[in-house]
Amino acid sequence: MTSAHAGIPEAARGIGEKLRNAREGAGLSVTEAAARMHVPTHIVQALENEDWARIGAPVFVRGQLRSYSRLLGLPNEDVSVTTVMPAARPSELVPRTYTPRMQRMAEQTARRLVYVVITAAIAVPVWLATQSHLDGDAQQTVPLDAQSPSAAPSERISVADVQAQPLVASMTPMPQKREAEPPASSGLNVSFNGESWVKISAPDGSLIEQALIPAGQQRDFAPGQVGSAVLGNATALTVQYRGQTLDLTPYIRANVVRFTVSSDGSLQPVGR
Known about the structure:
By secondary structure, this protein is α+β, with helices and mostly antiparallel strands. Helix content is 32%, strand content 16%. A hairpin with a 5-residue loop joins β2 (196-201) and β3. The protein is elongated and about 100 Å long.
């Protein structure tokens, strides 16, 4: 028995042959059946070959089997055994490498020393340049028109006074305020407050992600990246589109959120 059947009850095996016979009896090719189900061709092939691992989590296997059986007109009793298929279990993360504590401390210390050396290399020349100006005699800044003949006699500055102290004219331009840049438009953001299965497709129909997402995670998609979405467990979702939190009520059917993204970027609900 192949690993693709691991965790699947014996009664669930043999369904693929029934599906293949029903499809051939209906005169449909694999491509035609996939087009009517709105799924890639390899999904139909995996159902008929009972290659459950290629489809994904058991929740997706059950959904695809029900959709395929409805398309072929098979009784629900023929696929009802799939309801006892086990739930998906999250993959266990196994560390591949281990770094000793002393090595981590040594690396952190080395990074800090590099930061200190770079800071000193920048700060010391600036400080020395500042000191050279502070050590000199105090300079007086006077207007450039101090010797203007139009000034009143009592306001004129003598040549001796000007020569006694150096003149410094400030030519530093006034800083200009930069205009605030408008915030970039965001795409689709989904936050999972509870465990939920998702199926996200691109505008060309290709599959972006199909998985069971644990609680506490989120997914971000760029503008124009998503063409359609199916999100399970709607009550545990928070969806933001273009920076605004969506009211999911128009898109919910049986606690499942379904919508498409039109060419102008607007969301459209999808019926069952």
